[in-house]
Design goal:
Strand content: 5-15%
Mean pLDDT: 97
CATH class of the domain at 95-119 and 229-407: Alpha Beta
Distance between the termini: 68 Å
Shape: globular
Number of strands: 13
Bound molecules: pyridoxal-5'-phosphate, zinc ion
Low-confidence stretches: none
Length: 441
């Protein structure tokens, strides 16, 4: 069967564009583009047959289908030639029952999807494998692309650098100087990217990279390029698959540029359109109070949206005041009976620390989602028996400085309810015994 997809305008203008064309906006109205699949062709296979195919691939190791993304290749990028797939075996991350943390909130069915347990330590890998694979195919077909570029709050640049290096394509990343973690800075350096540290914030980097992307030979990897969302949407499919094709009641997802929540919605839409699911979950987007333009719009009515200047937050990957995918995200929330919550620095840090005491190692963005969860449970919006999935977006190991400062009580405005420090002892049995046994009393 010949499955196809193409770009089209999200606002519904006529016209469709080849996914191998270098184009990011609708030439008629300037809106973003999205990838539209030929659902009629896909429907020639029954829902049960798709489920069987996806389940088979999940348990095999046949390249490239073992990847959580490429196991759904027909739904993601059907026209991609196999020899152009640039995969580091992304997706397939663990979804675990957060039993003890759930108990602290009175929830019996709380789950955390650890998207950060991935090649570069964040969910950005899910989309980057698709974008870089398409670029590899464009180059193979003679497009004069010399480099992949992006602006980043730290995780996109790590993924761009790793996947470009794996493909043998050059990359350049624009970072706000001093606003990404050490791990996030060294990742693109190690992978050989050209790293430009600019004296601005993410929104400033984004404005410059959009102009840079108009130069010949430069291909833009930010999420305004909707190729990435095609990969990221598989997180919805993967979670539902991990529940044996049952849809949870809630997704809680941290949002910055708001591509990821749009992708989550698009994965759910596609499963519904294809007849794999019928239930609609609810979606909560969680924002840091310091960078909350979507939250403000939610409170005032979505038609009153205004960009803001984002302030400093530990959740540095979502420090974005002017989200590119604002319209897409609002449409998603409207379809999924959505809510938006926010978390202060203290709330996000304490939620992450409280969850860590039950075995997680939550990054600050996951802390934002966990803090939103607390609020929704407290005001009865999330019911005790409901199944809730928190999307954890990055590995806590990229944010060790945040953890260290929390446990040393050095985060401004945060009182550290669960501080824990090493105790220094001489190398003497009696001293160690005394310390351990007295702690157990
Ligand atoms: C990119 C990122 C987000 C935000 O995703 P958007 O698509 O920009 O909303 C959240 N958490 C982490 C760790 C990220 O890297
Ligand atoms: Zn248009």
């Amino acid at each position: 069967m010949d499955y196809k997809c193409a770009f089209r305008c999200v606002a519904g203008c006529e016209g469709s564009y080849d996914v191998e064309q270098v184009i990011y906006h609708c030439p008629k109205c300037g809106e973003l583009l999205e990838v539209q699949h030929d659902l009629e062709a896909l429907k020639t296979r029954s829902p049960a047959a798709w489920v069987r195919l996806f389940d088979e691939r999940k348990s095999s190791n046949r390249w490239p289908y073992a990847s959580g993304i490429w196991g759904k290749k027909e739904w993601v990028m059907p026209g991609l030639e196999d020899d152009c797939v640039v995969s580091l075996n992304e997706g397939g991350t663990n979804l675990f029952w957060a039993e003890r943390y759930g108990q602290t909130l009175g929830l019996a069915d709380l789950w955390i999807k650890l998207c950060g347990n991935s090649h570069t330590g964040s969910f950005k890998d899910l989309g980057m494998t698709v974008l870089v694979s398409v670029v590899k195919q464009m180059i193979k077909h003679g497009k004069p692309i010399k480099a992949i570029v992006c602006a980043s709050t730290g995780d996109t640049s790590a993924a761009v650098a790793a996947y470009s290096a794996a493909a043998g394509i050059r990359s350049a990343v624009l970072l706000p100087r001093g606003k990404v973690t050490t791990a996030q800075l060294v990742q693109p350096l190690a992978n050989g990217a050209l790293v430009c540290a600019l004296d601005t914030d993410f929104d400033g980097c984004m404005a410059i990279v959009q102009r840079l992307a108009q130069e010949d030979g430069v291909y833009l990897a930010n999420s305004m390029n909707s190729l990435r969302l095609e990969g990221q949407k598989t997180v919805a499919i993967e979670v539902v698959q991990q529940f044996d094709w049952e849809v949870p009641d809630w997704f809680i997802i941290p949002g910055g540029n708001l591509g990821n929540v749009s992708a989550l919605g698009s994965g759910l839409d596609m499963m519904q359109a294809m007849g794999l699911i019928s239930k609609r979950p609810r979606i909560c987007v969680a924002q840091a109070e310091a960078a909350n333009p979507l939250y403000l719009a939610y409170k005032k009515g979505f038609d009153k949206y205004e960009p803001i200047t984002a302030l400093a937050t530990e959740a540095s990957a979502i420090r974005i005041g002017n989200p590119i995918s604002i319209r897409r995200a609002i449409r998603t929330l409207e379809r999924y009976n959505g809510v938006v919550e926010q978390a202060s620095e203290s709330e996000l840090a304490e939620a992450a620390a409280a969850a860590d005491r039950t075995g997680t190692f939550a990054c600050p963005h996951t802390g934002v989602a966990l803090a939103a969860l607390v609020k929704l449970v407290q005001r009865g919006e999330i019911k005790k028996q409901e199944r809730v999935v928190v999307i954890s977006t990055a590995s806590g190991l990229k944010f060790t400085d945040f953890k260290v400062r929390y446990h040393e009580g050095r985060i401004e405005g945060v009182n550290s309810r669960f501080p824990n420090q090493p105790i220094s002892l001489p190398s003497e049995y009696e001293a160690v015994k005394k310390a351990v046994l007295s702690a157990l009393e």
